[in-house]
Amino acid sequence: MRNIKSNKWLAMLLLLPGLAMAQADSAKTITRHEFTVQQVVDYAMKNNVNVKNALLQVKIQEQQNRAFTSAAYPHINASLGTTYNPAVATQVIPNFISPATYQVLIDQGVKDGSGNPIQMPNDFGNIAAQFGTKFSASAGISLSQILFDGQVFVGLMARDAAIKLYEKTADVTSEQIKANIYKVYYQLTVSKTQIEMLDAIIALTEKNLRDTRIIYENGFREKLDVDKETVRLANLQTEKQKLLNQISNGYYALKLLIGMPISDELVLTDKVTENEVKDGVLEANNYKYEDRKEYQQAQISKQLLEYNVRRYKLSQIPTVSLNALYAKNAQRDKWNFFGRGDWFSVSNINLNVSIPIFNGFFTKSKIQEARIEVDKVNNQIESMKLWIDNDVVAARNNYRNAIATMDYQKKNMELAEKIYQQTKKKYEVGTGSQIEIVAAQTEMKSAQTNYVSALYDAIIAKVDYLKATGKL
User: Per-10-residue mean pLDDT for the chain, 472 residues long?
Assistant: First the structure.
């Protein structure tokens, strides 16, 4: 019996090696969850690690915005410091003391030992002097404030767009996970139908085996006929066990996808019906690019890149800043700054205007680079429109074909079941052979499998179409 798209578990089974560790902790309390598909999605939005990390990235950006906003506020800093000079620096300076002394003596008419008036020497040489003390201390407070900086203002304007970009990234992640949840959930739901049909086939085979054994015991059948039915029943039971194992692994995969502990019990309450699959999806045939999360994300990226162009343009205009300082300084020969002594005040206020004149065409090249980045994202947006158009058309065609195939396979299944019932009646009254009933049973089982597979394909095609149109 062909299993339903066994290769369509969305690669979730690749995560199963980690299940052994999770199952080892059997002491945990088992919680039972009876979930519709929407409840499973809601659970995943709170517990899936990718969704949680995407939302945390939004919070990280919020903090980064606060850090950037701080550039527009005053920055106030206090400082305390003390210095010890074991050897005060010595400076050699021209001898300015001796000329003054000589000038006084000359003015007073003082004469040398020979009775001649004192003359001013041509060179008095240098003297070594130490400026400062062994200890010094300072305490002050400073303020700096940006009064105007075009780049800072553009950055402040871009804060909301940066938050929206990460929020939209989280939406894209959530939508992808939601689509995967729908597919796995409905595959597990359709598998229930497949198990029910397989159980019905097993029940029929068991009855055929009983009937064949009775007919054999009455001498109208060979032992070989009984053996064939026994082998057929064993094969069906083995196939059912394999399918149950795949379904069990599918539940594990779904739990991992939504962030549910493996030890918890998950019961899926929704059922897949043909009416649900059809459900008028194609009646609203229109769609808008803006409905797609990826398109919204690209538009926000473009907005941020346009802010970048403005930032580099505004870097060409002057910036204005204000700085102020108030401090107290003291010098001592001993470290006794908390005792008596003078503290000298220092204060200043500076208004600075920085005027960019020429930086080697650096700014011009950055503006052009930013504009090219905008052109690139414009090209990506136009390409995305074509991709969305193709995605919608292909998804619509696949959906319509899946619906048609499902309807066809349902009729084929009903016909195969009717043929089997007629063949069974002929066999029971002795006008039909075992080969005929086996062939009819095989065809019925194949038709049932094809119908279940078509039902699953149809629901997946519906999910893909809703995602393509941005309405998932």
Answer: 44 41 52 91 92 92 89 93 87 80 78 76 79 89 92 88 91 92 91 87 85 79 82 90 91 92 90 82 76 93 92 91 94 83 91 90 91 94 94 92 92 91 80 79 88 91 91 84
Interior CA angle at 311 toward 168 and 367, to 5°?
A: 105
| C-alpha closest to that of 68 among 197, 157, 192 | 157
Length of the chain in residues, anyone? 472
Q: What is the rounded end-to-end Cα distance, in angstroms, of the chain?
A: 33
Which of 180, 244, 169, 250 has the alpha carbon at shortest distance from 37?
Answer: 180
Running DSSP on this structure, what letter comes out for residue 73?
A: S
Gap between the Cα atoms of 160 and 166, Å rounded:
10
Which tokens in the block code for residue 102? 């000589």
Contact 30, 263 (CB under 8 A): yes
List the Cα angle 235/237/239 in 5-degree steps: 70
CA-to-CA separations, 139 to 88, 93, 230, 330, 347, in angstroms, rounded: 21, 31, 99, 9, 12
Neighbours of 452 (CB within 10 A): 27
Residue ranges of domains in the chain, CATH in brackets? 12-20+29-76+148-317+359-468 (1.20.1600.10)
Gyration radius of the chain over CA positions = 44
